[in-house]
Amino acid sequence: MNTKPSLDGSSDFVKNEEARETPPMRSYLWLTMFTCFCPAWPINIVALVFSVLAQKSYTHEDYDGSRRLGRKALHLGIASFVIGAVIITAMGCDLLRGKKRWKRRKGGTVTAR
C-alpha cells in the first residue's frame, strides 16, 4: 500500500501531536473549598471530593475523566453555594422576625435574662 504525502508538506505525525495537547486542568478546587463555608455540608463535601478526584485523574493523564469530574464539582459547588445562600437568608429573616415579635411582647425593649 503506497500512501501519498500531503500537499502542504506536513506529516500526519505532527498533526497527531498537535491534537494531543494537554487541556488545561479545571478541577474548581477554589470554588469547592469556598463552598465548604456554606451551610449545605453534605453537598459541599461531595463537590470537594469530585474536585480532588478531577485533579487526580488529570495527574494520571485521564483528561476526559478529569473534565467530567471537574464539571460535576462545578455543578455541585454552584448548587451548594445557592442552597447555602438560601439557608442563610431564611435564617436571617427568621431571626429579624423573631426580634420584632420579642420587642412587641416585652413592651418595645429587649432584655436579657
TrEMBL record:
Entries under Pfam families matching the protein: CD225
Tree of life domain: Eukaryota
Keywords for this protein: Membrane, Transmembrane, Transmembrane helix
One Gene Ontology cellular component: membrane
Residue segments, region Disordered: 1-22
Subcellular location: Membrane
Keyword Repeat applies: no
InterPro entries from the UniProt entry: CD225/Dispanin (IPR051423), CD225/Dispanin_fam (IPR007593)
Residue intervals passing through the bilayer: 28-53, 73-96
Stored PANTHER family: NG5, TRANSMEMBRANE PROTEIN 233
Family the entry assigns: Belongs to the CD225/Dispanin family.
Protein name, as recorded: Transmembrane protein 233
Primary gene name: TMEM233
